[in-house]
Each structure stands twice: as structure tokens, then as C-alpha cells.
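Exercise 7.
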Amino acid sequence: MIWLVAVLSCIGLICAEAPFNHNVHNQRVIGGHDAKPNTWKWQVSLQFDSYNDGSYYHMCGGTIVDSFFVMTAAHCILSMDASLYRVVVGDYNLYEYDGSEQFIHVERITVHPKWNGDLAKGNDIALLRLANPVYDNGYVAIAELPHPGQILPNGFTCYITGWGLMDYVGSIPAILQVAPINVVSHSVCSQPNWWGSIALKTMVCAGGDGIVSGCQGDSGGPLNCFTDGAWRVFGVVSYGPSGFCNQVTKPTVFTGVSSFQDWIFSVIQSL
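Solution. The predicted structure, written as C-alpha cells, is:
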């Protein structure tokens, strides 16, 4: 039997009475460290108001792919009611108001049409149309994407970022975490003692060394890789092993952005 866990967690309330709804008890990239301020400017905190009372909690990561669009994982979408979501861009410390953040409500949600809720079948990607555009305040940037169909070689070092769990006991970060993580080629990741047949060619595997991995709260966030003279987002955090996130031969699995370029641009251009 295959055991999967979406790298997703609903981690802690942001108090509604705070001026910017920004006091948060969150869940980090395992094996990571505090990112430098004002880096990874395309990183997003996707937040959800489960009771529709103005109290938001960080649930997933995301990536700015257009001034009006954020890319995240389809499994992060708990409701198609866009009014229950907001994104925070330019954030660094989820516990504090840094003055760099922009809080933007979501206007429309577009989930990939072939997503059926089964992580093993892939297509775990969604785009959020924002009610207002992200504006350049010096702390945000639109992510560069890979070339269509571009594949990274085995062992290529990328970086995973997010505010997900830091360890199996549930230690949680305030500050955005970053960790180097090595790509695992499809030919390796699809071996029976790795992820086997559920590692699809439309996915990117990275990690599996038992040290660095994504974990709950990192879902939807970016896999950042420096290629062709620029940082590019090659993946969207999708799933990992149940139990401990950082298991040997069970790397973090990302939706491969280069396999979904046509869909991404068609959605952005159509709305």
C-alpha cells in the first residue's frame, strides 16, 4: 500500500484583532536555516479563513507568477470560495509585521482541469487570481519560470523555501526557511525503492537524503533553481512520505512547472 502525505497543514490562527491580522502560530523546511531578509521575493504565504470571521492562518506556500496571479498546489485548495483566501507577499517573519508585506485577497481560483485529488496522479497545481495586483515595493518579484519541458540533471542543487515544519516533533519557524536540496532524476525517483510508478515525468523529485525535505506547511511553495543566469521556479511542493518528512529514498515531490507552462500562460492570459 502506498502511503502519501500532502505537504500541507493548517497551522495556526492569525489573530483578527491585530492591525494587520499578522500574529501567527505557524508550523519549516526540514534541515533549513533562516533565509536572508529580502530574498526569495516571489515566495508567498497562502492564508485561509476557515470560519469566515477575518481570522487567517498560514496553510501553504505559493509563488508570484504575474502581478495578478499566484501559483500554488491544487491540494492546498480546501474550498473553491475565493473569499476565504488571501495571500501575503513580501513577508519574512510571520509573527511580526515587518512593513514589507502586502495582504491581497483572492478573487478567483483555477485548479488544473486534470486534478482529481489523487496526489499520485499528478496535476497538483492551481492559480489564484488576485483582487488587486502585487505592486513593486522593493520586497516582491515575479518569478522566472523554466523553459517548457526543461529537465534538471540528477544531483543539481536547488533551494526549497517555506514556513513549514522544521522537524518531526512539530517545531515551527517565524522566519522564512531555506535549504539546499538536490534534484533526483526521474530514472532514480521512479525506482521501486524510491517512489516507484507514482513518480511521474511531470513531477520533480528532490532530496531523499534523510536530512533536507519539505514538510507540512511548505505545500504549494517553490523549488528555486539557478539556471541560464537566473533563479527559476522549477517546482510546486506536492507530496512527501507519511510520518517523518525527511526519509531516505523518499524525496520531496514537486509538480514540475516546465510541464505545465502552456496551461499556466493560458490561464493568465484568459482572465
